[in-house]
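User: Here's a chain of 122 residues. Predict its fold as tokens.
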Amino acid sequence: MLQRLLPVLHAIEFLITLIAVYTVWGELGGQDTLDYMPWYWKAGIGFGTAAGVVRLTAAVERAGPSVRRRITLWVLVLAGLGICAGLATYYYQVNEPQDEENAPATVTPTARLAPGPGMHGG
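Assistant: Prediction complete.
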């Protein structure tokens, strides 16, 4: 009975993980940076992480001699995706355009000093 429910449970786990990935990524990296980032980075890292979590869960469910190797592999894949997310977030935080409101004002000198006592005007 449980074996027949596993694909449905994995699909639910995938969707919940997808929501969790984007929530945590927006909180840690900043939602503005995540909004500025192109869709293909967000989709690749988000869907890859959700799929990796489902594959890790499937590896934990199995019994056999290669279970430890598979678990290690999927943990390393998830760590790599986390590093990619951090690097992409850092890149887009450094290179995001400045807002018009927060841009430093440029000051043009317009005041002229009048010659004071002891100064000779030309």
